[in-house]
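Cross-check.
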Amino acid sequence: MRSDLSLQIAQLVPCTEAEGPGRRFALWLQGCPLRCPGCCNPEMLSFEGGTTIPLRVIVEQIDEAARTHGIEGITLLGGEPLAHAAGAVALAQAMRERGLTVMIFSGYTLEEAQQLPDPAIVELFALTDILVDGPYRREQPETRRRWIGSANQRIHFLSDRYQADDPRWLLPNTLEIRLRGPELTVNGFPARSAVGLWKRPRLQNAPRQPSD
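Predicted model, tokenized:
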């Protein structure tokens, strides 16, 4: 593992069942060149935000999550993971060595991503098990597939680790809320609301309200 590599991280969730199959370590990468209307995480668009974390530290945290929570893989979100392809490749290689799977959510379609000039993207896809592609479109809410925000997005199974007929894709969506000290963290996709709309909540940190 290259000791000089780091990733710009907006948020980490060591164990989640709301961002892909099984228990997963989720990483939201800070920075995205796309400006999709209705972006779930607009605070993660800037490349100047987040926290720079050495790759070895991230891998150590994933190893701890594997021991403690029995995670089966990692999920990269954003921001835009493909804008951080070099670091993501090194991380994905470390996951492959550990037998863990890699899932990526990208605002690019697969065809658009394959035309990007960064050669690391091809390497990253070779190490990826599931790619969910396409921008989130709030006017096209997904009502059938778990973990998917809008109906335009596609699921690409890039390895044989997962299959399209896995019944977990048809389970209801999950919203996770965590309270850690003064911060409230929300991630995942909610179920259909009372007004009949679907909306993917952005991952957020909110100050804890004082109790009465």
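DSSP finds four helices and ten strands in the chain. The mean pLDDT is 86. Passed to J.P. for a second look.
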